[in-house]
Structure formats: structure tokens, C-alpha cells
Amino acid sequence: MPMGIIVNICSVLLGGLLGTLLRRFIPGFLKEHLPLYCGIMSFVIGVATMRDLKTMAAVVGALLIGAIIGELLHLEERLDSVGAHAQKAVTRIMPKLSGGDHADINMLIAVIILFVFNGSGFFGALNEGMTGDGSFLIAKSVLDFVTAIVFATTLGIIVSLLAAPQAVVLFLLFACAGLIVPHATPVMLADFQACGGAIMFFTGFRIAKMKDIPVTNLLPALVLVMPFSYLCNL
Fold it and tell me: Is the pLDDT of residue 226 over 70?
């Protein structure tokens, strides 16, 4: 039973629900300032996740080439469109629990990256599938719970709904871990985690509204970094 994955999914689901229910009681100035603090937390987690980086060339190369692929595929624009349609659908179905049609799409995309396409989450799911140890995801769940509460005060119930695609992604990675185990070395896994940390660091700029970095376009790097790490360490 992948307890780490289950706890992580529940942290987003329950945090989003709690934030949605409590948002009327949270002052406007606090809602305005909280994303800045969450952005800073994203910086901290990103740096901490990169601490075990082994092959700088592999991670930097994966990020650069991944960004080029993402730009050519217009991943950012596609996810923006999906996010906008999802927000409108939630607003139509549950108007009182949504963030409204004019909810901050940049913030929504940052939250999707943070919960659904996060390198640390990917690493945690793969690690649990390979070793049975879910402690990494359980520790990450504490931050995800608080972050979900914060963003749900602005975006509404859609934050909780992100637990569904998050579950699909994490369980798929958990199931595929057995296929990766024979080919992944500790160095490759460390570089994979560091690449995810870098993407989380860049996401912090978007969450804090400091710079609108198209982090979605960096996601192909997560596919490239382990092969690059292998080639660099032959």
C-alpha cells in the first residue's frame, strides 16, 4: 500500500477543502500576501531538493533542451487553456466554491505544477515504488497541506479537485517504478530529483508573482535528465 502517495493526495484534497471553507474568514490583505510566502517556501524546497545534485551538466542540459522542446510544443499555452477551461467549468458547476471566472490563471498554473507535475512528487512516487519507503512524500505532504489551504482561499475548490490528476500521475509513476529500477542508478535518481527541485525553484517566482516564468515548458526536462545523467557518467 503506497502510504506516502495516499497521504500526499489527501493533504491536497483536505487542504483545498479547508481553505475553501475558511476563505471568508481570512482578511483580504492576508490573501494578498500569502502567495509571496508560499513562493519563498517553493524557493526553499527547490534549493533543498537540489542539494544532492551529482551531474551539473546533465541537469542544466536537460533544463535547456527541455525548455526548447516545451516552447516548440507550446506546453505553457496548452496548460493555460486547460486551466482556464477547468476554472470556468468549476465556476459554472459550483459558483459558491470557486474562485470565479476571473481567478488568477497564473496562480492556477503554478499550483498545477506544484501539485500535479512536481519533480519532488515524481521522485517520491518513484522512490516509494522502488523501495517501499513513503517517508519523502509524507514529509512533503505537510507543506502541500498548508500550501493547498493558502491557494484555495483565492482559487476555491479547484485546488482540491487537483488531487484527482495528482493521484493519476503519482500512481502511474508508482506502477512504472518497477520498470525503471533495473536501469536507474543512485546518481541518476539524485539528478532527477535535483531537476525537479530546479523546476520547483522557478515555480516560486510565479507563485510569488515576481516573474511570470513559463515553467510548464520545463517539464520535458524531467524525461530527459536521467538519460543525460547516464550518458554523462559513462
Answer: yes
Of 187, 165, 150, 195, the C-alpha closest to 30 is 150
Secondary structure letter of residue 101 according to DSSP: T
CB-based contact 94:139 (threshold 8 Å): no
Grid coordinates given for 214: 513559463
Report how far apart, in Å, the C-alpha atoms of 78 and of each of 81, 83, 132 are: 5, 9, 35
Task: Measure the CA–CA gap between 9 and 174, rounded to whole angstroms.
Answer: 13
Mean per-residue pLDDT for 99-119? 70
Report the C-alpha gap between 21 and 139 in whole angstroms. Answer: 25
Segment 168-190, tens digit of pLDDT: 999 998 998 878 777 888 899 88
* Angstrom distance (rounded) from CA 58 to CA 60: 6
Mean pLDDT across the stretch 51-56?
Answer: 90
* Secondary structure letter of residue 103 according to DSSP: S
pTM: 0.77
